[in-house]
Write a structure and sequence with these properties.
Elements lengths: L14 H4 L3 H13 L9 E5 L5 H9 L4 E6 L2 H10 L4 E4 L11 E7 L8 H10 L1 E12 L5 H10 L5 H4 L11 H8 L5 E13 L3 H8 L4 H5 L4 H18 L8 E13 L5
Parallel strand pairs: 1-2, 1-4, 2-3, 4-5
Antiparallel strand pairs: 5-7, 6-7
Helix pairs in contact: 2-3, 6-11
Length: about 270
């Protein structure tokens, strides 16, 4: 997941931890990019919440002659992107308030806007970045619709933790497909929406903890004050994971992950 959040955390995002599951995290970007159908060669593309540049790499592969700008609120993520892909432009910036004199043929955002409140205003910001024939494409993890999201909410509400962690579920913002369609339809000539549930085969149930420590679990751990508290919280979450995510016959676990995709076209002439 690429981080471009207006929220403040105690620690910056860890790009190396995020990239432990790089192939799995890249697949939604690949699927989203492959659904963008345009007949022209885009000149300028912006990747909002670019993280360490893995989603931007997908854009580069599809449109190698385009100028790609990646923005992210995380200094660590931007530094990693600069190291990995020096041919692109990388800027530390807040997606919610970002503006540019440059207009973009594609405004792209993969697994980012769930960290940003007020999506009605956010989509206006994105629309203002588009050329008159531009394309807006974004993907949102439907985190609270998944067993892991429910587990984190339930554990966070327990007596030992709730004073420190019960606010964390409010950090995730997303709506159903109807909300995004109604916001975008006055601005777009054509809109595609779909949902996909990915079935990621992970080595073990603790691997789900490792996956989420660099994304959805992070705000909960950041809200705790000591390493021992973090360890105990992780143990409780793992116990619930073991109940909800069964081991397969070979000892591996299937981690289900539901996502919403939206592609909006400003012009009918794609």
């Amino acid at each position: 997941m690429q981080m471009a959040s207006t929220m403040n955390y105690k620690t910056d995002w860890n790009p190396d931890a995020y990239l432990k599951f790089g192939n799995e995290r890249a697949q939604p970007s690949i699927d989203l990019v492959n659904r963008i159908k345009i007949s022209y060669q885009p000149q300028n593309i912006i990747d909002i919440g670019c993280g360490p540049g893995n989603s931007s790499k997908v854009l580069m592969d599809r449109w190698p002659t385009a100028k790609i700008l990646g923005i992210d609120s995380s200094p660590n993520m931007i530094e990693k992107a600069k190291q990995n892909y020096p041919q692109c432009e990388w800027v530390q910036a807040d997606a919610a308030s970002y503006s540019s004199e440059t207009k973009f043929d594609i405004v792209f955002s993969n697994a980012t806007i769930q960290w940003i409140p007020n999506h009605e205003n956010l989509l206006k910001t994105f629309d203002a970045l588009l050329t008159e024939n531009g394309v807006l494409a974004f993907q949102i993890p439907l985190f609270r619709d998944m067993p892991l999201g429910k587990i984190l909410d339930n554990v966070a509400q327990e007596e030992r933790w709730k004073n420190k962690t019960e606010h964390c579920s409010k950090l995730f913002t997303y709506h159903d497909y109807s909300f995004y369609y109604n916001i975008l339809s006055p601005k777009m000539s054509f809109i595609e929406l779909w949902e996909t549930q990915y079935l990621h085969v992970l080595e073990s149930q603790p691997a789900i903890i490792e996956w989420s420590k660099s994304t959805g679990l992070k705000p909960y751990l950041d809200s705790l004050s000591s390493d021992s508290e973090k360890t105990d919280f992780e143990k409780e979450v793992l116990g619930e994971i073991q109940k909800s995510y069964s081991l397969q016959e070979n000892g591996k676990v299937i981690f289900t992950f539901k996502r919403l995709f939206v592609v909006g076209y400003k012009s009918k002439h794609r």
